[in-house]
Amino acid sequence: MLGLNKKDVGLLLVVIVLTVFAPFILNPFPEGSALAQFNAGYPDLMQRLVIFGIFAIGFNILFGLTGYLSFGHAAFLGAGSYAGIWMIKLLTLNIVPAIIASIVVAGLFSLLVGWISLRRSGIYFSILTLAFAQMSYSLAYSVLTPITGGETGLQPKVSDPRIFDAALAEGTTPRANFFGMFMNDSYELVLGGWVFTFNVGYYIAALFLVIAFYISIRIFRSPFGLMLRAVKSNQQRLNYTGIESRPYTLAAFVISGMYAGLAGGLLVAMDTQAGAERMFWTASGEVVLMTILGGAGTLIGPVLGAGFIKYFENIVSKINESVLQAWFSFMPEGMQDLVVSIFYPFIGKGWHLTLGIIFMLVVIFLPGGLMEGGQRISNLFKKKSNTDSGSGKSSPAAAE
Amino acid sequence: MGILEVKGVNKSFGGLQALNDVNLNVEEGTVHAIIGPNGAGKSTLLNCFIGKLIPDSGTVTFDNESLLGRKPHQINQMGVSRVFQTPEIFSDLTVFENVIIACFAKRDGAFELNALSSVASQTDMQEKAAQMLIDVNMIDKRDEMASSMSRGDKRRLEMAMCLAQDPKLLLLDEPTAGMARADTNNTIDLLKEIQEARGITMAIIEHDMHVVFSLAEKISVLAQGTVIVEDAPENIKGNPKVQEAYLGGAH
Questions:
Q1: B249 to chain A nearest CA, in Å?
Q2: Does the reported pTM lie above 0.90?
Q3: What's the gap between Cα B215 and its chain centre?
Q4: Partner residue facing A223 (CB), from B76, B104, B110
Q5: Residue B141: its chain A contacts at CB < 8 A?
Q6: Structural domain span for residue B153
Q7: A8-281: which CATH topology?
Q8: Each residue of A339-376: pLDDT tens digit?
Q9: ipTM of this predicted complex?
């Protein structure tokens, strides 16, 4: 079906089901309950989950398959954002031109950066991409201020030309739409104590995630994907097998750049603003973390990694001292203060500390990321059921 | 007229004359061995064939086309496949994927953006790769990781990858270096089989006399950067020049 084998169709269905039912899955606790702060089913966060999922899927096509570690992918996300916001300002508040422009501009920009950076491999490649991204960031802040808005960034204004749209009345806020459906429109479903929010912008972003994921499966299973894995494995052999590795790595670089551009365009479509901070090196680092945390080189790992980081970033940052006090209120007074002061550095603004610890634990104990964790758990169950049934048949790997 | 012709090749590194007016002719359909003591210039000469080094003067032609200044992948696309001293394979991929990559390289050339067709649907390539694995007796290991193969199997796999490209010339750089006697004999048998079945021209650079005399139809002896003798194997052993080169008379 769709040119996929059974297992991949299953994977695609999992992603579709997860994205369609995310408003339910992410809102498991009733409104107003003590656990409601762990809910993530509000539009802004859900949009970010899928958009950064797309970013990570694209990054994984480069890093997971070829092993080339780019430390500058946020530059393409930023370039896509700027291209998108200009379409919104100049053409129309409909997001279609914005998204197309963001993909095209990011693709061209990544072609330029890749053309130069891919002359080197390993750490030199990483440093080159990092240098490019930081240059883009500095330019966006300084010389390019007329195009990028500098520190304030860009937002649509009532007075923008928008040549395809009818003029907006003075005092209204310009809202991005998809043929009349506004991105920030939501439908709320109240079921007992639960409130589920279905947001237009989220579902449009989710549709792009499903398409992006489908294309990524096709690339993984294609001869092109096989060549990319061969690049990672042994470039010398590949060259002596008659294949030039650079066009392959460049194509992978541009494809992943276009994914980043799409993510940037979608960010603009959702919040109609763009700023240089999206290009900062920490943003490039974040997508590396997402991919490795989820499992580089696996299909679904990067999506999980992106979801994991964005979810916990939001939840952990929201916890403050009084929440901690409430959690540990069952303890005796002195003990409570001690425990709260131990946990305090890891919450709120200390979220990066928590992320750092999680990342270290994953890299040390699960080098294959969350996907490897899942695999180990399922293997554990398989082994158990094997010994239970008394088959005693060892795996082929053990028989070698 | 040989398929690989080397004429008047000189190469020096600093003050060291590594190759000194080397002339060599590999006839089509034959197994040609290049032997010589350590430091005779065998590896330098091989590197001139495959685009790693460019000689200071002289010509290297394959099929009447110059090889000089071409990149390794271009030389491979002309029909020259190379087997390395330590088998170079894609360790992180399965045995089957290793071979099918070579099949794609033969069909699609140096670059083809086949990003949306699936490997599994390319039945002709699948069959060809499977046939190659049958030819080298490795079909039962097709889904195993290449890194888990024994040294001898890695060599077989590398050979299968080279053969999948139907090369006109197979370059072998000490194919049995570091192998146990049994593995060496297996490799000799494999090469003999391939030669008989396909008649591929082979140029072997080798240290091991046992291998050379079991396979080669013609031997060039390289010493101090020059070909001192080029003859059939039976005439090589008794040749006083060869004995001198090997027993150190020249030093």
A1: 38
A2: yes
A3: 13
A4: B104
A5: none
A6: 89-166
A7: ABC transporter involved in vitamin B12 uptake, BtuC (1.10.3470)
A8: 888 888 888 888 889 989 999 999 899 989 999 999 99
A9: 0.91
